[in-house]
From TrEMBL:
Residues 3-178 form the Prephenate dehydratase domain. One of its GO terms (cellular component) is cytoplasm. Pathway: Amino-acid biosynthesis; L-phenylalanine biosynthesis; phenylpyruvate from prephenate: step 1/1. It catalyses: prephenate + H(+) = 3-phenylpyruvate + CO2 + H2O. One of its GO terms (molecular function) is prephenate dehydratase activity. GO terms for biological process: L-phenylalanine biosynthetic process. The record marks 171 as: Essential for prephenate dehydratase activity. Residues 192-270 form the ACT domain. Pfam families: PDT (PF00800). Its EC number is 4.2.1.51. This is Prephenate dehydratase.
Length: 303
């Protein structure tokens, strides 16, 4: 039976995402950190891992960026986008709540609500929203900001539901496997890479230009320090399109020439189903016709 590791423990938003991406009969395996979810796939202990990648309010999840960049390559084969509204669970009377724990991304999305309803409480970072609920059960914290499903696993008092400073917040999750042939293109795909840049003037501008001249639309650009010298960064880029498409393959080949290293993180269908727009001169046939023309010249065969 295929096993999917997910960022747990039971009752996280990631468990919900993993459930929506799993096939029938897949076993969901909770692990405590994002790094250990990816480590279990790399080691072959599980077949896939589900982790959060970005939130519409708080941005990228740094632990996921680092776990994708370090270690053996893994590639995304699918994504899910979930609405994120929180439930506040407690084991105390409201007046006695002194500490509220959750994942830092979750705390950041309910800061306004906490200031209004629990102004006396100190905020404590936990490894995940569900880990905060476990902490409340153990008496380590007085309240936890969790995913709505957490209450089915951790029978605590529900202090509030539907809590969100930004009502339409969503988080995007990836399903990752050991590298294999990407799923076939659908016309509404995303390609994800990490570009390790040389320390050279305009290096990032050159990379972005390679995408721009091929009419490729970026859907995300995030920087993370390489943890080497101060000022050295790697860039996480998501773009509309699939590596099977000529303009994407051609652009990635150009980045391979320009960057210190490019890590391919997958081409997979977009959860929002938005089709890629292809400019008038960057369709697959434009590239094939152009390549045939060059080949003909090289063969002394110019029409
Ligand atoms: O802790 C969880 O429940 C998670 O799945 C992690 C996570 C995140 O990393 O952003 C997922 C969605 C919410 O934005 C808050 C926390």
């Amino acid at each position: 039976m295929p096993r999917i590791a997910y960022f747990g423990p039971q009752g996280t938003f990631t468990e919900q995402a993993a459930g929506s991406l799993a096939g029938q009969g897949d076993e969901l395996v909770p692990v405590d950190t994002i790094a250990s979810a990816l480590a279990s796939v790399r080691a072959g202990e599980t077949d896939a891992a589900c982790v959060p990648v970005e939130n519409s309010v708080e941005g990228a999840v740094p632990a996921t960026m680092d776990a994708l960049a370090d270690g053996e390559p893994v590639t995304a084969v699918a994504e899910a986008v979930l609405p994120v509204r929180f439930t506040v669970l407690t084991g105390q009377d409201t007046e006695q709540i002194r500490t509220v724990a959750s994942h830092p991304h979750a705390l950041a999305q309910v800061r306004g609500w906490l200031a209004e309803h629990l102004p006396q409480a100190q905020l404590v970072a936990s490894t995940s929203t569900a880990a905060a609920a476990v902490g409340v059960q153990r008496g380590e914290f007085d309240a936890a900001v969790t995913a709505p499903v957490a209450v089915t696993h951790y029978p605590l008092r529900v202090l509030a539901t539907d809590v969100a400073d930004v009502p339409d917040a969503v988080t995007r999750f990836l399903l990752l496997r050991r590298p294999a042939t990407p799923p076939p293109p659908t016309g509404a795909d995303r390609t994800s890479i990490i570009a390790f840049m040389p320390d050279r003037t305009a290096a990032l501008a050159e990379v972005l230009n390679e995408l721009a001249v091929r009419g490729i639309s970026l859907t995300r650009l995030d920087a993370r320090p390489t943890k080497g010298r101060l000022g050295e960064y790697r860039f996480h880029l998501d773009m509309a399109g699939h590596i099977a498409e000529q303009r994407i393959g051609d652009a990635l080949a150009a980045l391979h020439r320009r960057c210190t290293n490019v890590r391919f993180l997958g081409s997979f269908p977009r959860a929002d189903g938005v089709p890629s727009t292809v400019s008038a001169t960057a369709g697959d046939t434009d590239f094939v016709t152009a390549a045939d023309w060059v080949a003909a010249i090289r063969n002394g065969d110019q029409a």
